[in-house]
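Attaching the record inline, Q. Sequence:
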Amino acid sequence: MSTLYLVRHGQASFGADDYDQLSPLGAQQSVQLGRYFAAKNLTFETVLTGTLRRHTQTLAGISEGLGHELHAVCWPGLNEYDSQAIITAIHPEPLDRSPSAENYRHHFGLLRKGLLQWMLGNTQPQGMPSWPQFSDQVMQVLRHVRQSPHQNVLIVSSGGPIACAIGQVLATPPEATVELNMRLRNSAVSELSFTPKHYALQTYNTLGHLDAPEFADWVTHA
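Structure, as predicted:
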């Protein structure tokens, strides 16, 4: 049985003009994950990423930590949904983007509600695929990986596609898929065992590479 390692990107630049960029901490999280993989003597015969910068930057950090470059196939079906379009579909008024805990909670509260309405088919965010189309893009990747003859496959992506993949394997309802998405931490690893016929969830949202007191303040969600 083979293993698919699903890695969410390191901390991005929430609140900045360009979110699609790892923060300095996000880069550190990624390098530390690579070191963790190296300590476990993990090798990846197949590597896939989305095409977003935070995906490729996370992979570069993992490569640095491993001590050798990982060559990936970029797959657009692993790209994240447009969170602003999701929120605008249920809350067209402009949001206060000044940094504060209250605005942070408000943003993610709206995102949670917007995701559910999109998954239920009650909204269609502008410029985005429908939820069934988004899910099918993720499933195309899973079908491709399932036919891989390799022992270890690495995917670097975002919370939406990873939650979608796990939700498909577990057959979760939309409400549970949203919660899977919202709980995923930066640089977290989830593992799916697979054969040519099926997947099985082994681990979800783990941070083994940050499981030490000196990394306590490296745990982030956005």
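The chain has two domains: 2-80+129-218, 82-127. The chain has a mean pLDDT of 95.

More tomorrow.
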